[in-house]
């Protein structure tokens, strides 16, 4: 009798980034271009890293530059308030799913909803105007 061992491939944990106003899990979700921080979760909500957004003062380029940074961080999902067309396109081309429209919700709440699969995935940008930053 010929038997084969089942070898389970090790899946990499999902990396999710949430754009927020302060550096804790009770922070409010804000638009990508106005985010002062982003929190990256890996696999488990208890396993996270807080990063200060040093590019949020780049004017109309803030969202686009942040999208590039999040793509460099190899996130799979971005949860944000609003996202412009160029930032959305950049994340989409990197294979990152975007959940927008979460303005004002707590980071912990949107993370829970995302893990339960109840946050809709965006198919286009949710902001098309100039923020005037």
Walk me through this protein's architecture:
- There is one protein chain.
- The protein has 133 residues and is an alpha/beta fold.
- It has a single domain, classed as Dinitrogenase iron-molybdenum cofactor biosynthesis domain (Nucleotidyltransferase, domain 5, 2-Layer Sandwich).
- The chain is 22% helix and 20% strand.
- It has a 5-stranded mixed beta sheet, with helices on both faces.
- Helix 1 packs parallel to helix 2.
Q: Tally the helices: what do you get?
A: 3
User: How does CATH name the architecture?
Assistant: 2-Layer Sandwich
What's the CATH class, please?
Alpha Beta
**Helical residue percent band:** 10-25%
CATH topology: Nucleotidyltransferase, domain 5
Into how many domains do the coordinates divide?
1
Number of strands: 5
Q: Return Rg in Å.
A: 16 Å
- The helix-and-strand class reads alpha/beta
Q: Strand order across the biggest sheet?
A: 3-2-1-4-5
C-alpha termini separation: 70 Å
Element-by-element helix/strand order: EEEHEHEH
- Report low-confidence residues grouped into runs of 5 or more: 1-9
Largest sheet: 5 strands, mixed
Percent range for β-strand residues? 15-25%
The CATH superfamily is Dinitrogenase iron-molybdenum cofactor biosynthesis domain
Which whole number gives the mean pLDDT? 83
Gross geometry: globular
Considering the chains and any ligands shown, give keywords for the structure.
3 helices; alpha/beta; 5 strands; 133 residues; Nucleotidyltransferase, domain 5; five-stranded mixed β-sheet
């Amino acid at each position: 009798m010929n038997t084969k061992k089942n070898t389970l491939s090790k899946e990499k944990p999902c990396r999710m980034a949430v754009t927020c106003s302060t550096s804790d899990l009770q922070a409010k979700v804000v638009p990508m271009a106005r985010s002062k921080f982003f929190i990256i979760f890996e696999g488990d909500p208890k396993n996270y890293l807080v990063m200060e957004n040093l590019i949020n003062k780049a004017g109309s380029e803030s969202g686009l530059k942040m999208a590039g940074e999040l793509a460099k961080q190899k996130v799979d999902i971005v949860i944000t308030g609003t996202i412009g067309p160029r930032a959305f396109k950049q994340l989409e081309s990197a294979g990152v799913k975007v959940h927008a429209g979460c303005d004002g919700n707590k980071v912990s709440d949107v993370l829970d909803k995302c893990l339960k699969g109840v946050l809709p995935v965006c198919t286009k940008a949710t902001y098309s105007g100039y923020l005037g930053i």
